[in-house]
What we know:
globular
Amino acid sequence: MELFHGYTYSAHPLACAAGLATLDLYREEKLFERAFQIEQKFADAAMSLKGLPNVLDIRTVGLTAGIDLASKPDGVGKRGYAAMENAFHQTGIMIRNVADTVAVTPPLIVSEAEIDEIFDKLGRVIRAVA
Length: 130
């Protein structure tokens, strides 16, 4: 009896089928083209956070934004973690942080109204962790 070891995601037929179906949807629904069309709206919304307390830098590419926050005096990453925790528990949005950088990456189906909502809520979060 031969035994083969492989990871569940290594060319597993079901995982491959799901991946191919996903690529078909991206193509059929023109999600990449749509993301390109709303990229500037997303960037403008992200840049609206400039000037808030402890915001050091903001950068965007596509539908991804990185917002650098000033570290708290008692430790690097504490303000970013507080922002992530506050965003989830207080506003219902999911962001991720790497130290004191907050990353925002919505799904490609995000609407322009949802972009406004995300950054409105994120602005409240940043003010709360100031």
